[in-house]
Here is the input.
Amino acid sequence: MTAIYLLGRVLFFLLAFLVFYTYLGYGVLTWLLVRLKAGSGVVDAAVGAGWPDVTLVVPAYNELAYLPDKLKNCLEQDYPAKQLHLLFVVDGSTDGSIDYLKQIQLSLPNLKIIAGERRLGKVAAMNQAMRQVSTPITIFTDANTQLNREAVSRLTRRFEQAGVGAVTGEKRISTLGSEAAAGSGEGLYWRYESFLKKLDAQLHTIVGAAGELFAIRTSLYEPVESDTLLDDFMISLRIAGRGYRVDYAPDAYALERPSHSVAEEMKRKVRIAAGGFQAIRRLGYLFNISKYGWLTYQYVSHRVLRWAVTPFCLPLLLLLNIGILTEPFVTAKAPKDIFLWQITLVAQFVFYFIAYIGYRLENRQTRWKLTFVPFYFVFMNWCVLLGFARFRNGNLSGVWEKSKRAL
Here is the structure.
């Protein structure tokens, strides 16, 4: 057995462990750590009370189709009306959004509008909006999402916990039984993410807010670079890096439809992946575990490995497995455990074949959900590789790139 063969085996098990840890092991380990912490009696003390003034910031580029429902949804919140301020940012919109909001503003004094002629992008719009916010709490939400009636009050209550600098709500995907594979897979993915976020919050802090619904202490906001792709992630992680917790409120949620098609979901995922690599470069200081402790553990395990390591492990595992089975034929001396490597290779091919079936069925009305998880898993990681290529090519822009949602 050659040294190269032994090295290949060790590398294969190392990469397989990284994949397992990223998607399952981290959740198991964090669950155990949370149980240990619960038994230690550590409690975050509550401070303050009452209902502070809140500004609900809604970036809405060419979202006229959603604005009536969004406004109605905002006004139906169970929060005291006089303390809930609405700020819609519609820079560069050409679909009549500006005229519509100005008409509504005549009878709604708590509504403010930022309506420049140029399309500056979401990040620039948020930076501009925050200069006009004077309330102690700011909540960001997307125009195409619907919030549960208690969302604002439940997010705001979380700030009564000492040390909480931001709070993220839960993103929920509304899917139908006949939805395309991308939509069903997206829903499964977010349900698993919600489970991990609950564990993250119980252990220490969330590592990345959901842009569809998250809140911050206004005083902690720092202007974000205009070319930032993941504004919600950067804002929340920088707040966490300053020593504050980012809490999770699963009882405050934003409901939206899945992407219209796999092509639309791919466009969104590739952008997120490119933004992930951009964020890793800008948040390099968070790798200092001696300074950031639990935050570094959570950031690396939950985000960095998923974005920058595991997607590259998957093709390497396949190539290594093929190489390990090829080497004995070169040396004409097969090892005793060759059957094990044959099984792992067959298992990989079967998994990718099921994922391929899911891809073929992506837009057909089918209830064969067995294919959804393998398909979406491969799909996500393929998008990361495409996102890395986009990041390396420097094709980054903070200008909004809307993905079409299912009706």
